[in-house]
Design brief:
With 987 residues, the chain is of the alpha+beta class. The protein is built from 34 helices and 30 strands. The strands form eight sheets. A four-stranded antiparallel sheet has the order 1-28-27-26, with no helix packed on it. Strands 2-3-4-5 form a four-stranded antiparallel sheet, with no helix packed on it. A four-stranded antiparallel sheet has the order 6-7-8-9, with no helix packed on it. A hairpin with a 2-residue loop joins strand 18 and strand 19. Helix 11 runs antiparallel to helix 12 and helix 13 packs parallel to helix 15. The protein is elongated and about 175 Å long. The two termini are 117 Å apart.
Length: 987
């Protein structure tokens, strides 16, 4: 321990604490409240929290000398119990901090209360809850007091020690909630025994259960001036205890979560039990037993005569001796006792007149050394306050393991040291000892303990560890040749460990350095593994290709993180290595551009293959064309070239005939280059395919000519494809006819018979006279007599049909002329009040009222007008104006032009009439007027403007025309300048 700093210090709290009420006989403390009892029956309460004190005389009304035997105060400092002993026997009183007068507990009259156990978990300022009182005759009683009742709620007898009736000298209680029930733990001591009680329910139920079963106790015989039991409370829970017994100080930890014994029904909640022998308190002198004890977290405060010795309960060594500044009168009697205030964390000692306060100054600061000296390393680490202290604990452990040649354990501890031992010193230790494996373990553990900011050091150590791993792997291979085949060998284990290390350290290892290390040691597989971790997939794929493992290479390429460019780069090698797996991988890969794979596919296709072998390139191209609907001309051209090289041209023909889509707008339904396809098919002598391509390119003459070399039936089919050009179709059939005539090798009559049969297949397109020039000049006409007669009969039928059609046409023309004549005589009846559809004036008014339209003459007294079959009627001038306004501009200009011409002609006619021109000169003029008037009628009166297309087109016109802008402006509301006048509106 550090002797330069005192852990416990003593201060005089109050010199004359009894205030002349006798001498101090007992004392208790809690929450900065001190209660003392005097030899004259007074109880004095000092509340240092509020700075006041109260005095109670419990001897009033009692004969003879009275003395306070014991005083007790709860941890909160509110509840107080005191026992007075005198000639009248013993009496026990209860008082509250707010009371001015204590209350006697009449049921306890005659009983000397030695100890009290408070229910620390449930006690409150106004209620004591359950309190256990232990008496001098070995009885236990339960008490409960509520401050508002001004008296006890009840006092119950609980238990009595019958086997060995002794006075109860110490009593403690603890509660815990277990599955919605309260469990009680009670520990009581006599001068020779320690009893344990536990159970569920209430205290009465717990102690009643011990009527039928034995009480759990431990006996330590021996004489002791004053047996005591203390709990150390931490965060309102008892964590360890100490019993001042005749044999020594029995102490240990408390664990109230222990398992219940099925045989005894008790709970063994004491752990780490120990007994401190009194002989350790004095050296070479007869052991002196303490008269009182106080318990702190790590120490015992033992009262020995006028001194208090502080003993570390872990090491059992005396660390300090506390001296008290007593008066001469009190020094003879010595220190009477010790008490503790668990709430305030203080201890008190008292003699007859004075109270001394014992304060603690960080009592756990050197506990790590204590545990370290005892080799309890876990506890030492738990009590370390700074990294330097922890380093010393780790160093001791490391040196001990190194000395015992447990190098791996030593390496783990050395790795945790950060300050008191350098990294170089540790590594030199292992290098000097020749322990490469332990050195590697040290480096790995050191990496675990380094901060992320030490990037440079992490990289260096990781690289060193990598080299040590590689050295270990090579040494294992040299030691055991069969390590490669044995899956359970140390070699396989270290390989897996090394790969795990590479995976964990991939972000801190320098890529170039690590790759060079792996390569220099010949660890190709680990190099590939590390390259995969670092995303160097090109190296990985290249390695697998060299090993002939195409499937593994393809698995790497299919990873989402791998660039698709590697697919194109390694495509030639992969398809040459394993075409099936490569093509399957391509088909499974999304966003793959087949055009970039064309070089690889062409290289593969150029190599010789077995006749019956499935061409993988064709399979992939068909997948692109049919499944992916690829429109790339390069893909289609390549597939077409592969089809063309096959012996069977069925696939080629199906491909040419297949429609892959509309292609470009108004373009063909294919994506390959037809010119390239034609050259290729001609080169490979795929004539049927050439015929199809010619036909597709609308080169029907070439298609038929080539088809005639292959199959006349194919030529006929090609000729039939031409439907919109009759002359071309006839020309194609003539080509076929010439070929048929020239190719027939039979007798003349058979040739003629075949030619006539061919004519029937043309469905009348060719006649006998069309094919006669193909026969030789010396052919006799008798051979064609039947065909010629048949042809003449057909012509005769056509002539008769034409005559009938002409007659029908003549009759139709006559009927139309009759209808026109009848139409000219048609009339309609209008009402005398019929209004014009435009101006809304009556149609039958005189012409002077409106004026006669230009180009029109008045009919009697009326203006010219139009009447439509629908019933609408219009003045001629109104109709012209309406149609001109509503129709399109070009039509309106045409109407105005006609009207202008009519006006000019009418003016000239009037001038000529006035000049007495001859009548013969006016006839041509009138004919022109009628023609113009007819044109004007057609322009304005071909349909009713209200029922025809003109009205329908008006739907799309705006309500306000462009020429009505001024009219719209006139409707705008403008602010009135000056005074406003309201004009009443009459309804």
């Amino acid at each position: 321990m550090d002797q330069g700093r005192q852990v416990f210090t003593v201060d005089l709290l109050e010199r004359h604490a009894a205030k002349g009420r006798g001498v101090i006989t007992c004392m208790a403390a809690g929450n900065d409240v001190i209660v003392i009892g005097t030899s004259k029956g007074w109880v004095i309460r000092h509340d240092f929290g509020v700075g006041d004190s109260f005095e109670f005389d419990l001897s009033a009304g009692r004969p003879g000398d009275q003395s306070i035997h014991r005083v007790f105060v709860d941890p909160g400092g509110c509840h107080c119990i005191a026992t007075i002993v005198g000639q009248g026997g013993a009496e026990t009183f209860y008082t509250h901090a707010k009371w001015t007068k204590p209350r006697v507990l009449s049921k306890l009259k005659g009983l000397v209360v030695n100890v009290v156990a408070w229910n620390r978990q449930q006690i409150t300022e106004v209620s004591t809850k359950e309190v256990i009182l232990g008496t001098d005759n070995g009885q236990l009683h339960e008490l409960a007091v509520d401050e508002k009742d001004k008296k006890e709620k009840y006092i119950k007898f609980l238990y009595e020690l019958t086997e060995l009736p002794e006075a109860l000298m110490g009593l403690q209680m603890e509660t815990a909630s277990v599955i919605n029930e309260t469990r009680y733990y009670v520990m009581a001591v006599t001068p020779t025994r320690l009893y344990s009680f536990t159970g569920f329910g209430s205290l009465e139920t717990v102690f009643a259960s011990y009527l039928d079963r034995a009480v759990h106790f431990m006996e330590l015989p021996g004489d002791i001036p004053n047996s005591e039991l203390h709990f150390y409370i931490k965060q309102r829970r008892a964590v360890h205890f100490a019993w001042l017994s005749g044999a020594g100080i029995y102490h240990g930890g408390l664990n109230f979560g222990g398992q219940q014994s099925s045989s005894s029904g008790n709970v063994n909640f004491i752990e780490n039990k120990a007994l401190l022998n009194y002989s350790k308190l004095s050296e070479g002198v007869e052991a002196v037993k303490p008269s009182s004890i106080a318990l702190s977290e790590f120490h015992f405060l033992l009262l020995l005569e006028n001194k208090v010795k502080v003993v570390n309960r872990i090491s059992e060594h005396i660390i300090e001796e506390l001296q008290f500044d007593q008066t001469s009168d009190s020094a003879a009697k010595g220190i009477i006792g010790l008490c503790s205030d668990a709430t305030a964390g203080l201890f008190y000692a008292y003699d007859q007149n004075s109270i001394f306060q014992v304060s603690i100054n960080d009592e756990g600061r050197d506990m790590w050394k204590v545990y370290l000296d005892m080799k309890e390393y876990a506890a030492a680490l738990a009590n370390c306050r700074d990294p330097f202290q922890r380093d010393q604990v780790y160093l001791v452990q490391a040196e001990a393991a190194f000395s015992s040649k447990d190098y791996f354990r030593a390496s783990s501890f050395y790795a945790k040291i950060n300050y008191i031992l350098s990294f170089e010193e540790v590594t030199l230790k292992f290098i000097s000892a020749g322990e490469q494996d332990a050195l590697r373990t040290f480096l790995l553990r050191k990496l675990d303990n380094l901060e992320q900011d030490d990037k440079c050091q992490i990289t260096m150590i990781s690289t060193w560890a990598t080299e040590l791993y590689l050295d270990k792997i090579n040494r294992l291979l040299l030691e055991d040749d069969s390590a490669l085949e044995n899956s359970n060998s140390e070699y396989q284990s270290i390989i897996q460990e090394f790969r795990a290390f590479l995976s964990d350290s991939q972000d801190v290892l320098d890529e170039t350095t690590t790759m060079k290390l792996l390569e220099s040691y010949g660890r190709v597989e680990e190099m590939v593994y590390f390259a995969s971790l670092k995303g160097q997939y090109e190296i990985v794929v290249h390695h697998y290709i060299q090993q002939g493992e195409a499937k593994k290479a393809l698995e790497v390429l299919q990873k989402p993180s791998v660039s698709v460019d590697l697919q194109y780069k390694f495509a030639p090698d992969l398809i040459a290595l394993d075409a099936y797996e490569t093509v399957e991988s391509w088909m499974a890969t999304k966003n793959l551009n087949p055009r970039k794979l064309i070089p690889a596919m062409m290289r593969y296709s150029s190599e010789p293959h077995a006749k019956n072998e499935t061409h993988e390139v064709i399979k992939y191209l068909e997948f692109c064309v049919h499944k992916l609907h690829n429109e790339d001309p390069g893909v289609h051209n390549l597939l077409l070239s592969l089809y063309a090289k096959q012996e069977d041209d069925s696939s080629l023909l199906r491909f040419l005939e297949c429609k892959f889509g509309k292609g470009p707008e108004n373009g063909p339904e294919f994506f390959y280059d037809p010119k390239y396809a034609l050259r290729l098919c001609l080169k490979e002598k795929r004539m049927r395919a050439c015929v199809h391509i010619y036909s597709m390119m609308s080169m029907h003459e070439e298609a038929v000519a080539l088809a005639l070399q292959v199959d006349p039936e194919l030529a006929m089919a090609e000729a039939d494809k031409v439907e919109d050009d009759e002359d071309l179709r006839k020309k194609l059939w003539l080509m076929i006819a010439k070929h048929v005539v020239e190719q027939e090798k039979g007798t003349k009559r058979e040739n003629i018979r075949m030619a006539i049969a061919f004519l029937k297949e043309t469905d009348g397109l060719l006649k006998i006279e069309d094919i006669l020039p193909f026969f030789p000049d010396f052919a006799l006409i008798d051979d064609f007599k039947e065909a010629i007669c048949s042809s003449l009969e057909d012509y005769n039928k056509q002539i008769e049909t034409l005559k009938e059609e002409m007659n029908d046409t003549t009759h139709g023309a006559d009927n139309i002329r009759n209808d026109i004549s009848a139409l000219a005589q048609r009339c309609t009846v209008i009402d005398r009040d019929e209004e014009c559809g435009v101006c809304r004036r009556k149609i039958l008014n005189t012409g002077r009222e409106f004026g006669i339209g230009r180009g029109y003459t008045s009919v009697g007294q009326m203006a010219p007008f139009y009447v439509f079959p629908c019933g609408h009627a219009f003045h001629a001038q109104c109709l012209i104006a309406h149609v001109t306004r509503c129709t399109v501009e070009t039509h309106a200009e045409h109407i105005l032009d006609l009207q202008k011409q009519l006006t000019l002609i009418s003016s000239e006619t009037r001038r000529e009439s006035n000049g007495n021109l001859a009548l013969e000169g006016t006839i041509p003029s009138m004919t022109s007027v009628d023609k113009l008037r007819s044109q004007l009628d057609d322009a304005i009166a071909s349909e009713c403007p209200f029922c025809g297309d003109l009205m329908i087109r008006e739907i799309s016109l705006p309500f306000i025309h462009a020429d009505e802008d001024q009219h719209v402006i006139s409707w705008e509301i403008k602010p009135t300048v000056g005074s406003q006048r309201s004009i009443p509106l009459s309804l």
